[in-house]
Specification:
- By secondary structure, the chain is an alpha/beta fold.
- Helix content is about 40%, strand content about 15%.
- The strands form 3 sheets. A 6-stranded mixed sheet has the order 6-12-11-15-13-14, with helices on both faces. Strands 2-3-1-4-5 form a 5-stranded mixed sheet. Strands 9-8-7-10 form a 4-stranded parallel sheet, with helices on both faces.
- Strand 2 and strand 3 form a beta hairpin.
- It is globular, with a radius of gyration of 23 Å.
């Protein structure tokens, strides 16, 4: 095999070299785009230019699933294997694709193909989902090989609906809202209002709104901003967490692809509030369309002086750098995301200290997810008092729910907090696809909990779900009809966490593996006395002793299944 032409990479490395280690992920992405994979001489050149030990470069390469250190096919196809896609026949699609190692173009040229299984691709409403050369595609178990590989990559259009259309008013058309269209619809009015206020007044308005994080942790946004604003040290940073990788979730992808300026406006207001001059927009590696969409939106904002020096003629300056992840669920955890931006493996940090005082590069940092930031312009435009009229007293505002699985109309639904699970599934989602009765809904994704038919009238609010022993998470609802094998679903959830555990702490590293081994055995009908006790012991140990949210929630769905369906974990009793 001929040596790679390192001259091809030099223009990119020359541009990135002044950043040092923090430019490692952009350098690796650029190298893989050029060569198809990252051979050792290329890794050595990156290490030399960015002044990073070569062992650290390979440590990062091996950590992220989307990087390849060996040659791969000219076409790479990722097949989603999460529960929603499994329900729609993803295993059959994978088998169909895997029968071939190459395919013929119309010219007769044979093109090599690499097929890889992948966790959730954020296309759950179009299951079974594929990525072909990083562009989204949909399939069906009946698709032929040629039909599967001939996908154009045109992004599937998500059905967007709900009782409200505040955060999603410009979403669902299949088109990206340009800056011109956003401005015509009142865009950046909230930023102008913020710049006419003191930074303290902006924070007080966010606090008064009752906004809490929409990524799953539900921490009060205003308190987070206030803590960072009061923290000693500079510079300060604002980070948008767009590493949306929870199985069943696709809301942030829709917001980014359809209405990017709404998120940028929220991010700029956040920066003004805490006194930050630099921000990072971190997008999961599988979201290439969203990555390019945000890139274009940032350039539009810079050209219009909505980013950069002296924004809109004020004394406030702020700019955004976009970073693309590389396939690691753990990087959705805020401190693991910081490590990734800094050019390291995405290992979570021990807390405290917390990000608002010691965040990115050890400096005060506010990190919010996409949906949280999209709420910020709405709050300033409506006013906190009017915003609080939406939803419930303890859960104010609108909420986005990703509905998928055995439901007639999968899609993204915007509702006020407090509507029932029944309303979302049966009124908005059209009920189940077939005449088969409802069996369960997984709320919160892989890290969530199961709801049964007894929970259908539970209000979808923090307090309503909490009283029912359920979790909201990031707003994922995957529906299963009565014909579905929940053992298989649990097996897939356990496999997901076993594969995605970063391995930094032993409770999670070992616990997810043991959990997976037991569920794999049960899926095959191989029961052992004490399986229920073993799963409970492993699950509660991970919950209580793991370092970060991944391990702390890795057993949530399994423990809830043990509560509602203990027969799934035991051999059938003789009649």
């Amino acid at each position: 095999m001929s040596a790679p032409d390192l001259a091809l990479l030099q223009p990119v490395l020359s541009e990135l070299a002044p950043q040092g280690r923090t430019a490692l992920l952009p350098a690796l992405h650029a190298a893989q785009d050029l060569y198809g994979y990252i051979p050792e001489p290329v890794a050595e050149e990156i290490a030399r230019t960015l002044r990073i030990p070569l062992a650290d470069v390979f440590g990062v390469l091996e950590f992220y699933a989307l990087f390849h250190t060996e040659p791969v096919g000219k076409v790479i196809i990722h097949v989603c294997n999460d529960p929603a896609c499994a329900l729609a026949g993803a295993d059959t699609v994978l088998k169909q694709l895997s029968r071939h190692a190459e395919y013929a173009l119309e010219t007769g040229e044979l093109v090599s193909v690499t097929i890889e299984e992948a966790p959730c691709l954020g296309l759950c409403d179009h299951a079974p989902a594929l990525l072909i050369q990083n562009t989204p595609a949909t399939a069906s178990p009946e698709s032929t090989w040629q039909e599967l590989v001939a996908k154009t990559g045109r992004r599937p259009q998500t059905h967007v609906d709900g009782d409200l259309r505040l955060l999603t008013k410009r979403c669902g058309s299949g088109q990206t809202t340009s800056l011109e269209a956003y401005l015509a619809d009142g865009g950046y009015t909230a930023l102008k209002k913020a710049l006419a206020m003191s930074s303290t007044s902006v924070i007080e308005e966010i606090k008064a709104s009752g906004l809490v994080g929409r990524g799953g942790a539900a921490f009060p946004t205003g308190l987070k901003w206030e803590s960072a604003a009061q923290a000693q040290g500079s510079p300060k940073y604002v980070v948008c967490n767009a590493d949306e990788a929870e199985p069943g979730t696709f809301k942030d992808r829709v917001l980014m692809e359809d209405d990017p300026h709404q998120i940028l406006e929220g991010m700029i207001i956040s920066a003004y509030a805490i006194g930050a001059e630099k921000g990072y927009f971190y997008i999961r590696g599988e979201y290439l369309n969203a990555y390019h969409t945000i890139q274009r939106a940032v350039e539009e904002a810079r050209t219009a002086n909505l980013l950069g020096a002296h924004i809109l003629g004020s004394d406030f300056s702020f700019d955004i750098e976009i970073r693309r992840g590389a396939g690691a669920y753990i990087c959705g955890e805020e401190t693991a995301l910081f490590e990734s931006i800094e050019g390291k493996r995405g290992f979570p940090r021990v807390k405290p200290p917390f990000p608002t005082t010691h965040g990115l590069f050890g400096k005060p940092t506010v990190i919010n997810n996409v949906e949280t930031l999209a709420n910020v312009p709405l709050i300033l435009n409506l006013g906190a008092k009017e915003y609080r009229k939406i939803g419930t007293e303890k859960s104010p505002g609108p909420k986005l729910f990703c509905l998928s699985g055995d439901v007639h109309q999968p899609g993204l639904y915007e509702v006020p907090f407090g509507v029932t699970l029944r309303h979302l599934i049966f009124d908005l989602g059209g009920g189940l696809r077939s005449d088969v009765p409802f069996q369960a809904a997984l709320i919160g994704g892989a890290a969530g909990t199961f709801a049964t038919s007894d929970h259908l009238d539970t209000p979808l609010s923090f307090e309503g779900l909490r009283s029912a022993g359920l979790t909201l998470g990031s707003g994922v609802i995957t529906v299963f009809d009565a014909q579905r094998d929940l053992r298989d679903v649990l097996y897939r959830l356990a496999r997901f966490f076993a594969e995605e555990s970063c391995g930094k702490c032993y409770p999670c590293q070992i616990g997810t593996q043991r959990q997976y081994e037991i569920l794999a055995r049960l899926r095959n009908g191989q029961f052992l006395p004490g399986d229920i006790e073993r799963l409970q012991d492993v699950g509660w140990t991970m919950t209580d002793a793991s370092l970060c949210g991944l391990g702390q929630t890795a057993a949530s769905a399994i423990l809830s299944a043990l509560k509602y369906w203990p027969h799934l974990f035991q051999p059938a009793q003789p009649a």
